[in-house]
From TrEMBL:
It comes from the Bacteria. GO terms for molecular function: argininosuccinate lyase activity. It catalyses: 2-(N(omega)-L-arginino)succinate = fumarate + L-arginine. It comes from Gimesia aquarii. SUPFAM superfamilies: L-aspartase-like (SSF48557). Residues 8-299 form the Fumarate lyase N-terminal domain. This is Argininosuccinate lyase.
Amino acid sequence: MAAKAWGGRFQQQTDARVEAFTESISFDSRLAPVDIKGSQAHAQMLAKVGLISDEECQQILEVLTQIGVEIEQGQFEFRFDLEDIHMHIESALIERVGDIGRKLHTARSRNDQVSTDLKLYTREAIHRIDSLLKDLQVAFVERFERDQDLVLPGFTHLQRAQPVKAAHYWFAYCEKFDRDRQRLQDCLKRVNVSPLGGAALAGTSLPIDRQYTAQLLEFTDVARNSLDISSDRDYLAEFCFCMALVATHLSNWAEEWIAWFSTEFGFIKLPDAFTTGSSIMPQKRNPDVLELIRGKSARPIADVQQILVLLKGLPMAYNRDMQEDKLALFDSYDTVAACLELAAAMVEGAELQQETIAAKLEDGFLDATALMEYLIKKGTPMRTGHGIVGKLVALCESRQSRLVDLSLEELQQACPQIEDDIYQILGARNAMAALCSFGSGGEEPVNEQWQYWKEKLGI
Ligand code: ARG
């Protein structure tokens, strides 16, 4: 058992149960690459200000790189008694270069070190999630031409409401995922502020150059208050919230497609490669991937709670509770990344079931609002038009017919302003085509959205 780096004032060995209880190496070893990057920047800064020599710095940089390679290749042994990834790397360095290695931690604490690592890691996570979100947006946008001729019922309360061009749905998801991307870029502004050099909580009396390490690590700013640095995990709460909202959007989409995949809807066919069977019912094709995307969204949502509850009772500055922050970060990141990868593949591979959709498209009076708007254009006050169309719908329901089945006489009886151009409005397709306001689900406005997304995503 190695002596503890902090063991000077202790008279007893740490209890083995305490070591097993306090370790974080079992989940923070994935910080190794960013820990090494941060330490290398720190060493370069120590050399620049004269706290170590250039030769010492060179040795530290080389050995750290070598340790990084060993960790990556799985040739590095992790042990509970060395606590965390930071201690493992530092003690390996000391083992190999002795006193020179003992200088690396000059003017640094694990408190600013771990925050630096987390920020570097979160920055990479933001870039990866952003690119996965973009892939998913591209998958939706690329459906446009395939689904060009398709009209879908739009729902509110899961009741048939108004018809929209199918791609209107795809672009609706693009908008949600775009806001998610914007939120991540905003979060990045806080992530990109360097904590390194904040030391334990108070800064240091040594002549360090925090601007220099910030520059080396490509942070855009330097955090101003060492107490705040030591205690700040806002950026993790924000990142986890971003993940929770992406997961919520994915869950909404998954829920919708699960319904659409049912025999009752029959709107969509999912590729065999993305569905699973039943061990007893031979006919089954289950949307398990979608269900798990919906189900896994519980995790990022729980992770935000975990971070906030973890932080809310802490006094300034670092407290060991904060070690648990990584569990929320990694879990929300891994979960959302895995869901996004599968989501894009499913959006690409799914087929809308034209015939089933068309067969039921005239159900549910999707054209009722279009009829009311026709009456408004003919001078009928909106509320009066609403009442007239409501009565016509009731009449149709009593006959099990559609609005388009009403004769011109019947329609004129309800409202004398109606002329025979009404039949260019009635029917789901016509009602969709009549939609023309900015952002609506009609032909032209959806074409405009298509142009927008093609340009924005560089398709
Ligand atoms: N493994 C610890 C963590 O992740 C590192 C920081 C330890 N700092 C300390 N003062 N004990 O939070």
